[in-house]
Amino acid sequence: MKTLIVGVGGMTNGGKSTLSKSLMQKIPNSCIVAQDAFFKDDSVVPVNENGFKQYDMLDALHMDAMMSQVNAWRTNPQAFLKEAGQNAGSTMSSPDHVFVLIVEGFLIFNHRPLNEMMDKRYFMEIPYVTCKERRSSRVYKPPDPPGYFDGHVWPMYLKNRQEMENTVTGIVFLDGLKSKEELLAAVYQDVCKNINMLGGNLAAY
Ligand SMILES: Nc1ncnc2c1ncn2[C@@H]1O[C@H](COP(=O)(O)OP(=O)(O)OP(=O)(O)O)[C@@H](O)[C@H]1O
Ligand SMILES: [Mg+2]
Fold first, then answer.
1. Structural domains in the chain, sorted by start
2. 27 alpha carbon – ligand 1 mean position (Å)
3. Burial environment of residue 46 by CB neighbours within 10 A (0 to 12, 13 to 18, 19 or more)
4. How much is the pLDDT for 172?
């Protein structure tokens, strides 16, 4: 059995979830593990001296639980796929078929054990103004309090990004200002190339 783990990282509102879902729809037998599903309960996330909840750091996430999910997929992608029920179009096929896991989230490359599992790494970036604009048009749970973007989200992004650049190599940076279609086409093509390199069954793609 052949497998490929694709990491879709990036800053908040870079377009990670949008791209990941579209990729999954195009790649048979693929599925997604999303980091957003692993935030700790609000009651245990600490508050800093400015009163901002410290969500944008690894400590705010149940990374062990996320690792367990990724490991469950690695152990048996077929069973995981069936249970996750995410990819309705999937068909179980030949032994040459490559199972693809898309791991998406804003801190996936900052967690060393998770980063080490990735076969491909993409990072979606957008300028500060676009990021702030996109973020303000969304409603998060819990909602961002006034000043949260400039007081917590953006400074933590800069810090986390610096840490990532100091420790991780092989990241393909993507311009999140490009259209959704253009981003999907580029990443899909690149993933197919990697599937091909594994000697995977491209006929199904
Ligand atoms: N290529 C794009 N061009 C324009 N808008 C986009 C693009 N990709 C995503 N968006 C929009 O930006 C917003 C954020 O997209 P998305 O939820 O995919 O980002 P994210 O990186 O997963 O964000 P989060 O930090 O909430 O996890 C959405 O409103 C989405 O429709
Ligand atoms: Mg998202």
1. 2-201 (3.40.50.300)
2. 20
3. exposed
4. 98
